[in-house]
Amino acid sequence: LKHLRFGPSRVRTPVLQRPSRCAAMGGGDGGKGGQRRDAGRRYAFKVLCPEPLVSSFMGARGATKDSIQEACNCKLIVSNRDEHWPGTRLRILVIYSDDPSGVVAGLQEIINRIIELGDEEQGNWKGEPEFTGKETGEYMFRGIISMKMAGGLIGNGGSNVKAIREENNAKVFIDKSPVQGHQSVKVVAPADGLRSAIARISDCIQQEAHSDWFPEWAAIRSFSGEASGYDSSWHGRDRERSPRRGQEQWNQGWESAGKRAVQTDPTEDVLQAIAATASEFPAESLAMDFTITCDLPTHKVSALIGRHGEHIKQVRRQTGAKIHFEPPAEGTDEGQQSLRIQGPLLSCYTTHALMMKQYHEHDMENQRREEKNAKVSELQEQLNQLQDQLRAVQGEPAPVKGKGKYR
Fold this sequence. Notes:
This protein is α+β, with helices and mostly antiparallel strands. The protein has helices spanning 51-58, 63-72, 100-124, 147-154, 159-168, 191-206, 214-219, 247-252, 266-278, 283-286, 301-305, 310-319, 345-394; strands at residues 43-49, 75-78, 91-97, 139-146, 171-174, 182-189, 289-297, 322-326, 336-344, 399-400, 405-406. It starts with 42 loop residues before the first strand and ends with a strand.
């Protein structure tokens, strides 16, 4: 890359900063799933919901949702009707609670409704199923996790996800294509196995609630590039109301969670290639913290940060990686600064790709600006020549530039 110095000496040895805390899921004291409550901490779980599921847990004028919240000591916040997981018709439900057991209790209520809708679907559904698996008696749950959670969920050598599959007769699929630091998860299992498997996955997710990035991740339920914001109020009725579930929607069905919108941005191809390559790494390596550094011209730093830090904040939200520009060290080239990226392997390289995209877009913008200015100067010169020719034809003296007089 232009102006950047890369090489083995610039890519530091990966350092594992913390062990996976999901290695022994289900252990610990207090609450369902073996989680201990921490005062003042908010826990969260994100569920992908077809519209019939939203209708089911909302109820008439939100009455069912209110009952679930009161009984489970949790808060249910669902995305707006026009806000879906990219490439699907699935809305995002976030279950919040001050205690991990409240999140699990809320999840069990959602799973109960998935089972009810699945039973109805098996008898009447004509299109692609939304709530059932291929085998009789299987039900399907979909959620989203952060890229950092994915490594812990998989476990060393895939031990965690293997245990979930074997102990619950479950099929667990983790999408390899990240969206703003999120990856979708699909679990297919019999009713009891589904309840147990989702409780185990929630156990793993809530282990990350102590992390600095968790509150911001938990606040995102809109994937248009901005966080929807976390509703800290636990009282009063939300404005969200139960959408009408028409028979036409039931007959037509909804697009499946795995279907992706067509991407025209070549950057998306690069990011998907990075994700595909990372999927071939040993599972335990994806959960480790890596550090990547590179040097770049100091005058480029402001462009990578963006106005009021907008660009670097957006990249942090999307990947979950830590991004830091180190000041020039004494005795080094003052025209160079180091960019340091830290986080899980996939987050690091995704962050680097997005930062380099901004780097070259800034170059192209400057080039377009210079070309535009050159074109304006050329047109201005042509205009001056035409004016001189017109004066010559009319017999008028040409102006003396800079003096306001005529020759």
